[in-house]
Amino acid sequence: MTKKYSRIIAVIMLVIAIVFIFIALNNPQASFPWSNAITYILYGVYALIMIVLFIAPFKRKK
C-alpha cells in the first residue's frame, strides 16, 4: 500500500514541477527574494525527494 502512495506522491510532485516550470518560463520578471544558490539547492532537494519516491517502490525486501 505504501508503494502506491509513494508513486502517487511522486507523480503529483512531478506535475507540480512541470506546472511551476511552465509558469516560470512565461513570467521571467518574477524572482525569489534570495540568491540563486539557495534556489538551486531547493530545486535539487525537491528533485532528489521526487526521484527517491519514484525509486523506493522498486526496492526489494529481504
Describe this structure in words.
This protein has 62 residues and is mainly alpha-helical. The protein is 73% helix and 0% strand. Helix 1 packs antiparallel against helix 2 (36-55).
Residue share in helices? over 70%
Continuous helix count: 2
- Count of extended strands: 0
Following the backbone from N to C, one meets helices and strands in this order, namely HH
Strand content: under 5%
What best-fitting shape do the alpha-carbon axes yield?
A: elongated
What's the story with the biggest beta sheet?
none
**N-to-C terminal Cα separation, in Å?**
18 Å
Cα Rg: 15 Å
User: What do the pLDDT scores average to?
Assistant: 83
Structural class: mainly alpha
Question: Which labels suit this protein?
Answer:
single chain; 62 residues; mainly alpha; elongated
Secondary structure layout plus pairing:
Layout: H1 2-26, H2 36-55
Quick description:
The chain is mainly α and 62 residues long. 73% of the residues lie in helices and 0% in strands.
